[in-house]
Amino acid sequence: MASQLFKFDFSKRNPATPGAAPAQPAAGTPSTGIAARPFGTAATTDKMEMSNETFNNFRNLIYKLCGIYFTDSKKYLLEGRIVRRLVSHKMRTFDEYYRFVESPAGRSELNELFEAITINETFFFRAPQQFEAMEKIVIPELISDKKDQTLPTFKIWIAASSTGEEAYTIAIIILEKLRNKYPNVQFQIFASDIDRVVLETAKKGIYKEYAIRNVPKDLLAKYFKYDGTNYILSDQVKRLVRFSNINLYDAAQMRQMRGIDVVFCCNVLIYFDMASKQQVISYIYDSLNKGGYLFIGYSESLHGLSKAFQLVHLPKAMAYKKE
């Protein structure tokens, strides 16, 4: 995923947990807390286990803040990611860490918690079929609808931008294919994520070979400088993208995003339960102009989530259109 899409305002916690009622502990497993172990002895972090009660506490807290829901089968995943924070704070149990993040003293730690549980894998030109459809079909269609405007603005939003590869790919496409074709159009690219750390990385525009492996050689030479270790993106590309912290689950923050023509929200919905998906999709719907397009991940679908969008079959790609 992109890491999301979000920003926490931890000083204003939502008192009500949206969606389904909290799940109960799995049958046949203990619900008591684990005994404290001396930190750094033979009972190392690989032997730490999270009780079902503490798992439910973390699950409900994360769900309340951003709508991401960990099923019972993902308990091991949550354990593996949170244990790093225990090590950082030299804590002995998951329950101790939970009490810390729930306390006023641990408020800033919630950002670190969310960074630990999200995945930030992405790379340049990751979805070429979607980018080609955007360039050759979607943008020409929507710009045609703006023909009566003297200096039209075209807004693209990457709602889960992680370290910026998707947003910068679109910026390169605009520079290479669209700016000369539509000289009177002002293209604006907005990129958001909940994780402040990945946003700071994105703003720097410095990447390893893995991230740029799909960049055509001519574009690599034109827009990147290799320093022997990293590939440094040109300022010309970086200037086209505006990064910000936005929580897709936060109604107030989502109201800031209006008048958008195209939204990319790829590989994000898989992290939410049904109620959270519906909420996020409704916010994105409101952010789009009439006739605007939404691109989601290849394995994702709005089936059963929203009837407000029209599914559009594009060459080699699909998108959802706001009618």
What does this structure look like?
With 323 residues, this protein is of the alpha/beta class. The protein contains twelve helices and ten strands. The chain has a domain at 128-322: 3-Layer(aba) Sandwich (Rossmann fold), CATH 3.40.50.150. The protein has helices spanning 52-66, 75-89, 94-102, 109-117, 128-145, 165-178, 196-204, 209-212, 217-223, 235-238, 251-254, 274-287; strands at 153-159, 186-193, 206-207, 224-226, 231-233, 241-245, 260-265, 288-296, 309-314, 317-322. Helix 2 crosses helix 4.
- Rg computed from alpha carbons, rounded to a whole number of angstroms: 21 Å
How far apart are the first and last residues' alpha carbons, in Å?
A: 27 Å
Largest sheet: 7 strands, mixed
Which percent range describes the beta-strand content? 15-25%
| CATH level 1 class label of the domain at 128-322 | Alpha Beta
Share of helical residues = 25-40%
Mean pLDDT over all positions: 84
Structural class: alpha/beta
Considering the protein shown, what is the CATH homologous superfamily of the domain at 128-322?
Vaccinia Virus protein VP39
Counting DSSP H or I runs of 4 or more residues, the number of helices is: 12
Unreliable stretches (pLDDT < 50, length at least 5) are 1-44
Which CATH architecture of the domain at 128-322 is right? 3-Layer(aba) Sandwich
Global outline: globular
